[in-house]
Amino acid sequence: MENTVRRRLDCISRHLTLHTSDTRLIRTNAVSSVQLKSLSPTPVVIGGMVLDIHAKPSTPAKPGTTTPGMITWVSGGVARNISECMLKLGTKPFMISVLGLDVPGQFLLNAWSSSGLSTEGIQKQEDITTPVVSNIIGADGELTAGVASVQAVEEKLTPEWIWQFRDTIRSSPVVMVDANMNPCSLEAACQIAEDAGIPAWFEPVSVKKSKRVVSIAKSITCTSPNLDELIAMANALSCRDEYFSIQNLQHIRQEGSLESMIQVLEPAICLLLEKGIKIVVLTLGSDGVLLCSRGGANFMRSAMRNPISNRYRSPLYKAVSSSCPLNKFHCAERFKQHNSHPYIVHFPALPASVVSVTGAGDCLVGGILASICSGLDIMQSVAVGIAAAKGAVEAVGNVPSEFCVKRVAGMDYKEALFCRENLPYFCEY
After folding, report:
1. Is 275 exposed, middle or buried (0-12, 13-18, 19+ CB in 10 A)?
2. How far apart are CA 70 and CA 88, in angstroms?
3. How confident is the model at residue 14 (pLDDT cuts 50, 70, 90)?
4. Which residues, at least 6 apart from 4, have a Cβ–Cβ distance to it below 8 Å?
5. Both ends of the chain: CA-CA distance in Å?
6. What CA–CA distances, in Å, run from 253 to 264, 285, 428?
């Protein structure tokens, strides 16, 4: 088993090295809980399990009539997607969620059980309507429109249910919560983690739900918003809805450089950090990821360090650290810290043949968390997350059955990542 997982993870390693130009695949069939027991600690993921109904028209849709296309049922939900990605990178998560005893619920439960994962933390009741989201995907792979019916997560994933698993949370290396939960449940989960000294990761989910960060900001170690979610979170935390302009951001996004975009975003990033969040992983779509903190690279490494690391047994740790050692990030350490500015490191995205972007952000987070649980550094972990996100956008489902990592644009990703000449923004702003 370990050899099989190592072969899969070697592909990510090659993606981060300068050597080969071969195209290789990481085979990512789920593995059993018995097989994974000795490979990694057990992170806790709390949030939604959702049936995603994806509709992709084969011709431009016209109002008032049906359009030919393809409709697929896909296991989804932010927390569930992240968990699946983590599993396929060799880390077995413990899921806390809710499902109904209906057809969508059985579909999701069967898929979960077949992966060898525990269903102990999943509440299953007849009076629960399983969350369902219906998405219309455009020809470019972007979400055109969608309708979400996820009330069950807010209503049934209660603090009382979460508290039943407090011992599991206290012994975990990291806890991930998604904003589908109601504020009381978010507070309960984060409080348990904070009291035990466990890092807590907040996934904002959507612009509206991202505002739930207000009651838990001081308990959050890391959060992973996109641009619009960042602005919404900053507005909510500042109590001034017009303090940051989304319209101005849209203009900068279309017309400005990465540097000018960061200048606009810096006040919002600073506000999140001032309110107690230790690290912001800002997703920029095709522009990559910004890794932000107030304390610099060493601070970020300390904040997200896995206290019960399995690094000496983890194939992921061995594969990545051998070709992507920590000292390769030395250029990020050389920049003098200024108290008035956050420490920001830019990681570029990988060129991809986009099929659907619906699971990209979730796989980014899943890849990062799996890497942290394996004992990798936060910067190494972000690099692995970007490789996982590339696999997601090139797949039909939310989480690909295999991650394809290969040499792109005539330059290895490691070279682009560590070469300051290629990355002028790999520094503190």
Report:
1. middle
2. 27
3. very low
4. 27, 31
5. 44
6. 10, 11, 21
